[in-house]
Amino acid sequence: MKKLIYSAIGLIGLGFILMVMGFVLSGGKLSSFQVGFTRDDDYTKETVSDVTVIDKVEIQLKTRNVSFALNEDESYRVEYYQSERDNVLISVTDGIMKIEEEKPKFQLFFWGFRSRQVATVVVVLPKDFTGEIAIRSDTGEIHITALEVLEKLSVEVKTGKVLVSNLTVNSPLKIQSSTGTVEISNLVAPSLGIKVSTGKIVLNDTFVTGEATLGSSTGNITITGIQSVSLNCRAPTGKIIIENTLTDTLKAEASTGSVSVKLIGKAADYRLNVHSDTGSVKFQGEKYGSSLINPVGSKSITVSTSTGNISINISE
Asked: How many helices (H) and strands (E) would you count in the chain?
């Protein structure tokens, strides 16, 4: 048993020494170092294309990035890289495209990693595609930046960044990430729900006809230029920053962070229920101790934090 442990330690030590040597020989350049340790040579580029009608795309991947584009005609195309032990499976049945990652085959002493290009699956949809996309990913980035309109979109990621921009979604949009940043910009949706366990949420220039609910257990929430009937933010261990925002109902809750709010509107329209356990409260530039309550108004602002300051400004 001891010999096995010593052998394992020796292999780990050898791997570390090789990594240090590679970094030194690359002149300290991380990009050159990464190229030296990639296993891209094991992969070949594959393309699957057809003119079959696509109504829905279901993606379930383990260690791949995904990006989308629209084609110039009615055909679809999927571009990806595969090797003998690492492959992507693609099928289309009854208008549903499924993209799945085949379970990698075991290989002893398997070293190196894939470059970003090789690890990315590019999905090029027909030019008039406005259907449904459902994504589940264990580890990888999701980029939805080149589509225009979707009937439905759902994204669930365990580890990785989610980027959505320049998109209209006709049904409630839900995004969930265990570890990673979620960035949304130029979005239109009837409602929006974003839940992150560890990571930040960034929301810019978004129009939500109903409620927007954002929650990050460990990370900041930053909002700029959102318009919604109701905005609900919760960041137990992070800051909440809201700027240039138009909403009738605002709820913001932080535990160990500050809350900064800048709304568009009239201050007299808002009922206020604002409290900080160990911080100060500022409203329209004036200090009000640790709490501020105003029961009069057709709209409402409710903000609380345990250990942080609160600042609220409203201007037309």
From this structure: 2, 25
